[in-house]
Specification:
Elements: E1 10-14, E2 21-27, E3 32-35, H1 37-57
Antiparallel strand pairs: 1-2, 2-3
């Protein structure tokens, strides 16, 4: 999952409608439950938009 300074453990979950995988965790610094859904959803959406362009315009060796 990477190194995070503000939590020790996280649950990895998947949104049923969008298929986005994200983390849910207790933030030790804020004392609140948080998740990474929004940033992970944006990343998924960007990849879906960019991938066809890259496949079409970049030749792989």
């Amino acid at each position: 999952m990477g190194n995070w300074d503000y939590f020790e453990y996280a649950a990895k979950v998947k949104h049923e409608k969008y298929g986005t995988q994200f983390l849910v965790f207790f933030n030790d610094e804020t004392g609140e439950m948080e998740d990474t859904f929004l940033s992970d959803k944006w990343q998924d959406d960007a990849e879906k938009e960019i991938r066809p362009y890259v496949k079409k315009n970049w030749v792989t060796c």
